[in-house]
């Protein structure tokens, strides 16, 4: 049975959505093509009709995850940045990487990834930093950019470390310390 162009695009979107979630949960090497395609309700045979390689999928899924993050960050930052910081550094966000921040979930994979993934990741960092920059209390653009980059680094680093330690108390301490160091989080 021939797949229509519309169905092929729908399949591609489903693959990207599932990959964005599963890569955040398990990392690029933590899930194979068979499982990725199965999660999308498809067979592995159709994979190469949509993507050149798993690296290509990783880059596109990373872009998808980071674009979703930017939309969420914009919505939250426009209202109450301090409340958003609380949510970002929450137990729920720590415990559900598949639905959370792509920067924290994919940073280590991107660091070991190919050029396409690194390019997409850098674009995501720039985009999210720009979203935060307008919310920073600094005087000029350079000062607000520096504050935004520091805030982004602090948030992502604290979340990443809090996920990596097996100690609930230390996890909480890491996130609390970060929260208190931020210009809007404490």
From TrEMBL:
Gene3D superfamilies in the record: Homeodomain-like (1.10.10.60), Tetracycline Repressor, domain 2 (1.10.357.10)
Pfam family, one: TetR_N
Record-linked InterPro entries: Homeodomain-like_sf, HTH_TetR, Tet_transcr_reg_TetR-rel_C_sf
Superkingdom as given in the UniProt entry: Bacteria
Keyword entries, A-Z: DNA-binding, Transcription, Transcription regulation
Binding region for DNA: 32-51
UniProt keyword Transcription present: yes
Domain HTH tetR-type: 9-69
Protein name: TetR/AcrR family transcriptional regulator
Native organism: Pelomonas margarita
């Amino acid at each position: 049975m021939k797949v229509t162009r519309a169905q092929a695009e729908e399949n591609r979107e489903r693959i990207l959505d599932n990959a964005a979630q599963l890569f955040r949960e398990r990392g690029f090497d933590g899930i194979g093509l068979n499982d990725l395609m199965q999660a999308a309700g498809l067979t592995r045979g159709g994979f190469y009709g949509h993507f050149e390689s798993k690296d290509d999928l990783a880059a596109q899924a990373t872009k998808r995850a980071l674009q979703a993050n930017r939309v969420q960050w914009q919505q939250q930052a426009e209202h109450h940045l301090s409340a958003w910081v609380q949510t970002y550094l929450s137990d729920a966000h720590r415990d559900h990487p598949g639905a959370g921040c792509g920067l924290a979930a994919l940073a280590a994979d991107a660091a070991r990834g190919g050029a396409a993934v690194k390019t997409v990741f850098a674009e995501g960092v720039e985009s999210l930093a720009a979203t935060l920059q307008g919310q920073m209390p600094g005087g000029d653009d350079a000062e607000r950019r520096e504050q935004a980059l520091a805030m982004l680094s602090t948030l992502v680093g604290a979340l990443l470390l809090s996920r990596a330690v097996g100690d609930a108390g230390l996890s909480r301490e890491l996130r609390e310390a970060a929260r208190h160091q931020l210009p809007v989080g404490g």
